[in-house]
Amino acid sequence: MPAKEEKSDNVSKEYKAALNKAESYANMMHMSKKGIYNQLVSEYGEKFPEDAAQYAIDNLQVDWNKNALEKAKDYATTMAMSKRGIYDQLISEYGENFTEEEAQYAIDNLKIDWNKNALQKAKDYQNMMDMSKESIREQLVSEYGEKFTEEEANYAIENLDD
C-alpha cells in the first residue's frame, strides 16, 4: 500500500527517505510497527533521527495484522515452530515486536498442521542431534524448548522412525 505521505514541499528528504525505508521493511519483510521504528533509529540499522522515524511510522498505511500473519507463516513453514513458539516470537521484544492482538490474529488465522510441525522438529532432533525419543519429547513440550502441546509431541514421537 502506498503511504499517506503529505503532499507538501516542507517534508524533508530525510523524512521521505525514512518513509521509503519503512515501507520496504513493512512490505517486503513484514515487520511490526515497533520493529520498523527500532530498525530506522538503530545505530546498527538505518541511523535515522527519531523524528524522521516517527514521521515514517505515522505515515505508513500497513495492515499490521497481515504482517504478523505473514511473519507467522514464515516461522511455521520454514522453521516448523509450534503455535506457542510462534506467538512468543511475534510478541517478544527480542523477536518481532508485534502487539499481543496482532500476534493472536496471526495465530488464529494460520492454517498449519501443528502435528506435522512437531514431527518435523522431532525428526530434526533425531537426525541431527542423536537424541532419544524421551529426550525429544521433553524438548518438544518444554517451556524453554519448542512449546508444542503434549498431544502434538505424542503424535511426533509415535510417528518417528525407529
What's the quick description here?
The chain is an all-alpha fold. It contains nine helices and no strands.
Number of helices: 9
Instruction: Tell me what the CATH architecture of the largest domain is.
Output: Orthogonal Bundle
Order of helices and strands: HHHHHHHHH
CATH C-level name of the largest domain: Mainly Alpha
Please explain how this structure is put together.
It is a single chain. It is elongated, with a radius of gyration of 20 Å. The chain contains nine helices and no strands. The model has no long low-confidence stretch (mean pLDDT 94). It has 162 residues and is mostly helical. The protein folds into three domains: 47 residues, Arc Repressor Mutant, subunit A (Orthogonal Bundle); 46 residues, Orthogonal Bundle (Arc Repressor Mutant, subunit A); 45 residues, Winged helix-like DNA-binding domain superfamily/Winged helix DNA-binding domain (Arc Repressor Mutant, subunit A).
